[in-house]
């Protein structure tokens, strides 16, 4: 994690910290999408991906199965 983002997360200003949390959510979504794409390219089933993410195969397929 970049040090600026880490600093913002620890901020005592709630507005700054909450914006940093939002940035983390967006980053996590991007990382998840890339990992799901890689897994599908390597032949993983939706069930395997869902298991790895701790969600159902239906929910991961709904989210990423374009």
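-> sequence recovered:
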């Amino acid at each position: 994690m970049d040090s600026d983002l880490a600093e913002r997360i620890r901020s005592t200003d709630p507005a700054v910290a909450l914006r940093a949390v939002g940035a983390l959510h967006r980053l996590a979504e991007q990382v998840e999408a890339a990992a799901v794409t890689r897994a599908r390219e390597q032949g993983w089933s939706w069930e395997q991906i869902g298991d790895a993410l701790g969600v159902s195969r239906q929910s991961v397929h709904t989210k990423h199965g374009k």
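The chain has a mean pLDDT of 93.
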